[in-house]
Design a protein that fits this description.
Elements (H helix, E strand, L loop, with lengths): L4 E3 L4 H10 L4 E3 L5 H6 L7 E4 L9 E4 L2 E5 L4 H6 L1 H6 L1 H8 L4 H6 L2 H7 L6 H7 L3 E4 L3 E3 L4 E3 L2 E2 L7 E7 L3 E8 L6 E10 L2 E7 L6 E2 L1 H9 L3 H6 L15 H19 L1
Parallel strand pairs: 1-3, 2-3
Antiparallel strand pairs: 4-5, 5-10, 6-7, 6-10, 8-9, 11-12, 12-13, 13-14
Length: about 260
Amino acid sequence: MYDFGYHRPDTAADAASLLTKNGEAKVVAGGMTLIPTLKQRLAQPSDLVDLGGAADLKGIKIEGGGITIGAMTTHAEVARSGDVQKTILALAVLAGGIGDPQVRNRGTIGGSVANSDPGADYPAAVLGLGAKIRTNKREIAADNFFKGMFETALQDGEIITAIHFPKPEKAGYCKHPNPASRYAIVGVLVAKTASGVRVAVTGAGPCAFRSKELEVALGGSFSADAAKGAKIKSDGLNNDLHATAAYRAHLVSVMAARAVAAAG
């Protein structure tokens, strides 16, 4: 690693202030991506602002017809939360399938969403459930948040403080994981909401995206057969050593069908 300053503020406001004062600073949440990047000397921030001490960024509560999760809440805490299981079971299932126990007990929901990794699970939940991303400056709708691979709508000095997930009528999540990392080669979250069906896909493209084909199919019949019958195009999907674009297109409809079945 290169030398850097280290800060552990007590609040989100203090963290934002440190970022403003140090233009080359980076935020570290669980450190699942940033720390390996630093070890490989692929990044050289002047300072690290550790959000681990900010108590106002942690916690889970039922509110506003859904559930709000603090950005520094770990995957394990989301998975075992009775409030999450009771309100949006699919979200607890998703969190419980991330990585391994070490990752789940260290990684955070805010860090995962802010990183926008192509194979991360949470972006599918954010998009599929129509979540609101709350920051120290504003609230961002899910459909406006993910811009590309490792790219989001977050601005310099902007920190995710919490994410609010509206409660759907029903929802399910299923993924085909990489056997080593447990990242999603393809993961699909389906949600039936008061405003219609939402289907979000992760792992298949450069970033999470909504599938209009599946939303149309499931809007007509919220069933596994309808999902299986949807024709998913492979244009623009990832094509790598783990799976071809054509195979990923096939997996999207398969995972969607399983997610619908899981939704009940």
